[in-house]
Amino acid sequence: MSTRAAELVSAPISSKSSWPIIDFTRRLVRDKPLGAAGGLIFLIFLFCGIFADIIAPYGINDTDLHRRLEAPSLSFPLGTDHLGRDVLSRILYGAQLSMVVAFLAAGLATIISIVLGLASGYFGGKVDMIIQRMVDAWMTFPDLVLLIVVVSVVGPGVPQIIIILGLLYGIAGSRIVRGSVVSVKENMYTHAAQSMGGRNLYILRRHILPNVMPVVIVLFTTRIGAVILAEAGLSFLGLGVPPPAPTWGSMLSGTGRTYMYLGPWLALAPGLCLTIVVYSINVYGDALRDLLDPRMRGR
Amino acid sequence: MAMNEIESDPLLQVEDLKVHFPVTEGVLGRKQVATVKAVDGVSFSLRSGETFSLVGESGCGKSTTALSVMRMLTPTAGRIAFAGEDITRHTPAMMRPIRRQIQMVYQDPFSSLNPRMKIADIIGEPLVVHGMASDKTFYRKQVAELMDLVGLLPNMADRYPHEFSGGQRQRVGIARALALRPRLIVCDEPVSALDVSIQAQIINLFMDLQQELGLTYLFIAHDISVVRHMSDRVAVMYLGKIVEMADRDALFDSPRHPYTQALLSAVPVADPAIESHRPQQLIVGEVPSVRNPPSGCRFHPRCVQAMEQCSQTAPELEANQQGHLTSCHLYGSAEGRLASAEVPG
Q: What is the pTM assigned to this prediction?
């Protein structure tokens, strides 16, 4: 008999681990090396952010006015800024803040998008009408106006930024989720689940959500980048995380832009970090999307 | 067969079912500009253990009838009773226990299975939905039995739908419909999306299962030969109404309604010698819009035997001595009886 058939039967059993996460990591490394690399780079940044206190050679506000705008050297691997602060240390601490803001805001945005998108797309009719008109109303306000109003009322700070950015991107993103839900809902398996007596919450959880996950994952990973950049813009206007706390955004658009000709490393360092993190999370997100799709297995 | 069993309580009874959809226009102060009468006064009943087929062109309302029976739609008027219980106005909560007894098999075996669920999970889903999966060993045993019943191998349990062919997927869909041991299965064109060679297998599976489990089928189809093979009784629908309803043999051997005659004559005969010489009665024209159906008998604009009367009054569905129901003026009057003698048959 064919040995190939025997392989097919035994293969899934031998490679299955009792720990799904190990099994998943193995598949990630084997099938999607680029995605695995993205995930690893991202983990490194996360690690640096978490342990910034230990890794950073200097404090974030250790100024040395004699050594301003120094080019990268052995003692200052990424140079110093206009106040003589070590850029590397600020990047590391900035990773902490930027990552926290990016993750929480993008996470909040994704949750809002899912909840609004599922309700609007699945229930349709009047529910859809009401939710979508409210989304329309919200989107007629320019983002900046909303931000300025909120920050001037409650004052600048990290929690405010997270909530406001989460709302902004979440409500806009709900449109995308809704569209995907509407198309998934048309599949007969949704109808089948309804006709066998499945309750709405069950159908949403079991049938709709898993099938809109590809869209949700892409939404989340693109939002991460967008949030980091939005936070940069806010910090530039003085509405973001207040100085002297370092964020990549403020380093890039604040000192980075001002001293672009005198010290290009001031903009390059946070800019490159931003690019690398956003790219790696996107690559990882794509890999995740493919791996979670059973149709893509074994290809 | 079977006409004497009509006294026994029907499993499903549909009386004067009407499903109308409003057509609205305008953004503010939506106005109803028309009504689509998708199903307009359909009555039939299913006895336990039989296969009843609804045939007709697309758009004739057969699927809408099926969806009403499943109570995925609320009928505009009429009455639907399942096992003696009137379910016409049941709320979703009231329908839940009844849904265990009515299950559905779908036309498209690709969109009817969730691509992200394993075969075993799809088949066992009705058990999960109805809270019968808490006992894991019982659940696994049930799923294994169902897979065996429809001819799926045990090692397929952990695979995903995309790894299967259309016929195998349809077997999965059937196993899912059987999971709750229903009494009635509504089959909405269950073989029309399959290759002809696979169709026969699936039809035989349906018939074997009926014998084994005593199932009742409401079979929706447009393929005449499939219907002839499977059914005990057949109803022909045209534009939301039943035009003819009879036992299978009576309907196929001596069709009475001109529409049925035309429908049957459109089925090709496998022998080319016969095929090239046999009389054919083609239907002219397109199916009229349900939004604006013809007056009188809805078939009259396309009917070769249309009389003056046909465009004025709608014929009633009337039975002859053998219980063969036909809705046609040809059989209502003396004049009509004369005409029926000339009907090729």
A: 0.81
